[in-house]
Amino acid sequence: MAVMAIHPGEHLAEELRELGMSAAELARRLGVPTNRITEILNGRRAITGDTALRLAHFFGTSAEFWLNLQSLYEIRVARRKAGARIKTLPTLRQVEGSPA
After folding, report:
1. Long-range contacts from 54-63, C-beta under 8 angstroms, 24+ separation
2. pTM for this structure?
3. Which of 1, 25, 34, 53 has its CA 20 to 30 A from that of 41?
4. Any idea of the CA torsion for 42, 46, 49, 55, to the nearest 10 degrees?
């Protein structure tokens, strides 16, 4: 069973809903352009190190939390797109065991 890839923007949107806060308000508080937040919320932009630091500061979490959400999303998308093909590639053990 494939695990669903959830963009970190979905998590951020949930946080904003719970706070009753708009993307523009969050952007203002983080000191970033509004379109940075709206693009993350719409799944069209990744969370960068800079944004992760800002979100962590605002929400009282760690930057790693936000980057881990982004990494998990990217890995799940890659696994869905190319995972089966990647599994057919040789491994180091196969290369070391083959005649030179």
Report:
1. 54/30, 55/12, 55/30, 58/26, 58/29, 58/30, 59/15
2. 0.84
3. 1
4. 20
DSSP 1: -
Helical ranges in the chain per DSSP H: 8-19, 23-30, 34-41, 49-59, 63-87, 92-97
Q: What is the pLDDT of residues 34-47, one digit of tens each?
A: 999 999 999 999 99
Long-range contacts of 53-58 (CB under 8 A, 24+ apart): 54/30, 55/12, 55/30, 58/26, 58/29, 58/30
Residue 12 · residue 40 · CB < 8 Å: yes
Tell me the per-residue pLDDT of 75-93, one tens digit each, with 9 for 90 and over: 999 999 998 999 999 999 8
